[in-house]
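Hey,
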Amino acid sequence: MANANTAGFKGERVVFSSYLHRDDASAVGDTNFLIDKGSYIDMQQGGVSYTGNPLDVALKGNGWFAYETPQGQRVYGRDGHFARDAQGALVTMSGARVLDNAGNPIALPPDAAADLSISRTGTISSLANGQIAQLGIFELPDLQAYERIGNGMFAPPDIDGIRPPVPDEITEVVQGAVEGSNVQPIVEMTRMMSIQKAYERAVQLMNGEDELRRDVLRRVGRPNG
């Protein structure tokens, strides 16, 4: 909910499974429990808003931009709200440098801003300078294992067996636009209310079972006569 307006943000979903506890001694029969099995990143496409800013870039597909944080960490995200810093580097609003397809920071010539063009394949060019750079768009095979670090960015985990990012040649690049968050506040609020009601019903069932047990114990302990 807090990231509903964060460009390129991908929501996270919780995975539940059902566990049936068989209790032959129970007066109400078996009990069904929900078990939290973990979470996964929702890759549903966010809405694309056209801004007219030539440095803004949206992605249509499953590809990811590559960034280098101010701390020198290689991370990935979908936020294409870019700017040119004082040194000419293409950066995000949080100050991370945008990387090209070879993993190097992208630098823009001072005179390129007026007629900058970014093709559907991510090629950055201008009339005065020709081809300047190629935006790095990558596929992340093991994205679900990546660590969320904030600002809609993900860092590769430091564990063995993780497949490295590979170039993505399918995702389409849209200049002058930004992909919004795929979190829909009304849908999320409705889902949250539904989950809350489900938990409330589960608590009521457990309280009812406890009350039945207490009633049985009272009856058993009551003297005859």
